[in-house]
Amino acid sequence: MARIIIVNGPNLNLLGSRETDHYGTVSLDQINSDLTELAQQLGLEVSFFQSNSEGSLIDYIHREASKADGMIINPGALTHYSYALRDAITAVNIPSIEVHLSNIHAREEFRSKSVIAPTVDGQIAGLGSYGYALALSFFADKFNKE
Ligand code: DQA
């Protein structure tokens, strides 16, 4: 069974109460529990990690990527400036999808630039928590075909 790691960066632990106009009212725990259910239906194994610290995210990716078949990552604000996180994703070289709840291309100018985007297979932005589910479905399709 393919294993997908789902990684969330800074401030995403506050989903549900944080800037609900942009990020909705669903908590990260609820999103993860919905994704666990979906993964069961899709025949995938999922593991979750969230951290507010860039180093912890990089350490997790270094440690877990070799045991994973794919990664879904919402890097939060690190999206816009973390070359260290980008290098970590490049280094581990597993299929990866970048997810954003909000449409980063329709907000402040600084959010429209993702330094992560060139190193991932694709980006989903602006579809709320549905973006994670779509990314998971993509992986199910990909690994079922292989
Ligand atoms: C975000 C968008 C980022 O610009 C922001 O810093 C976040 C969340 C999103 O999911 O829309 O923390 O990644």
Q: What's the short version?
A:
By secondary structure, the protein is an alpha/beta fold. The protein has five helices and five strands.
Catalogue the ligands. 1,3,4-trihydroxy-5-OXO-cyclohexanecarboxylic acid
Q: For the CA atoms, what is the radius of gyration?
A: 14 Å
Instruction: Profile the largest sheet.
Output: 5 strands, parallel
CATH class: Alpha Beta
Name the poorly predicted regions.
Answer: none
Helix and strand element order = EHHEHEHEEH
* Overall morphology: globular
Number of helices: 5
The N- and C-terminal alpha carbons lie at a distance of 12 Å
Structural class: alpha/beta
Average pLDDT rating: 97
**CATH architectural group:** 3-Layer(aba) Sandwich
The number of distinct structural domains comes to 1
